[in-house]
Amino acid sequence: MRLATWNVNSIRSRVDRVVEWLSRAGVDVLAVQETKCRDGQFPVLPFTAAGYEVVHHGHNQWNGVAIISRVGIEDVEVGFPGMPTWGEPAAAEARAMAATCAGVRVWSLYVPNGRTLTDPHLAYKLDWLQRLREAGREWLEQDPAAQVALVGDWNVAPFDEDVWNMAKFAGSTHVSPAERAAFHAVVEAGFVDVVRPYAPGPGVFTYWDYTQLRFARREGMRIDFVLASPALAARVTGAQIDREERKGKGASDHAPVIVDLADSP
DNA sequence: ATGGTCGATTATCGA
């Protein structure tokens, strides 16, 4: 099974590109972030025409997550237990959605941005990650053999090599010790970054700012991750970041991240 | 020179 995650930065402005990519890349399950639309606005038909099912939860022009699958979708869940909210609950819920696809519990996550080191959104982000860690820890405690994927835009660059120039990020979010600790705590709870071994850094990124020719200059950040439970990590046979999709007019500012899984034993 | 570009909703805001 081929699993992928992609922050598409508006599904309505990107739908043709995403449908075309899904089929060409042979992706079975795609977790999408930043759909930037409400449920009724999601362009479902192009995906169903290509043989995919869609579940989406969106509320406003910023968040919105979806799961798109051609291997079936069951047990859909919006938000994780204990997930903190900010503003309208419906807007907060649009940051996390899970679906079980071919026995794998896939979480499409859009971690709060944090904005600046002094913004209250940073505390929200840290709390959000801590609650996710706690929920994840409990899932694995209840079932150590659970096949769970925590995928999406984490808005954290966990290591210095995950940004193009650490000096440029002094005093910024995404690289602060607190954010990195919150990310590593999820890893310590048992969820493994299964992409990094197949796409080692430095200089390997998943996001490049639209401004300042960042992509052309290879100046990006690695902030999109696939974290797998031990049982799922054991099935991984390969992974890649498809930076080709960041090229050209009409690209998202994020590249898709792909993980290949061996058949279930 | 502290900007630069996107996208959604309407001159801003968030990323």
Rg calculated over all Cα atoms: 17 Å
* Count, helices: 6
- CATH-derived topology of the domain at 77-261: Deoxyribonuclease I, Chain A
- The amount of beta strand, in percent, is 15-25%
Name the structural class: alpha+beta
What's the overall average pLDDT, rounded? 97
Fraction of residues in helix: 10-25%
Distance between the termini: 13 Å
Helix and strand succession? EHEHEEEHEEHEHEEHEE
CATH superfamily of the domain at 77-261: Endonuclease/exonuclease/phosphatase
Major sheet strand order: 3-4-2-1-12-11
Q: Largest sheet, described in full? A: 6 strands, mixed
CATH architecture identity of the domain at 77-261: 4-Layer Sandwich
The total strand number stands at 12
- Which blocks of ≥5 consecutive residues have pLDDT under 50? none
Overview features:
single chain; 265 residues; alpha+beta; 6-stranded mixed beta sheet; 12 strands; 23% helix; DNA-binding
Structure description:
The chain contains 6 helices and 12 strands. By secondary structure, it is an alpha+beta fold. It has a domain at 77-261: 4-Layer Sandwich (Deoxyribonuclease I, Chain A). The strands form 2 sheets. Strands 3-4-2-1-12-11 form a 6-stranded mixed beta sheet, with no helix packed on it. A 6-stranded mixed beta sheet has the order 5-6-7-8-10-9. The protein is globular. The mean pLDDT is 97. It binds one DNA strand of 15 nucleotides through residues 9-10, 12-13, 34, 36-37, 60-62, 113, 115, 155, 209-213, 252-253.
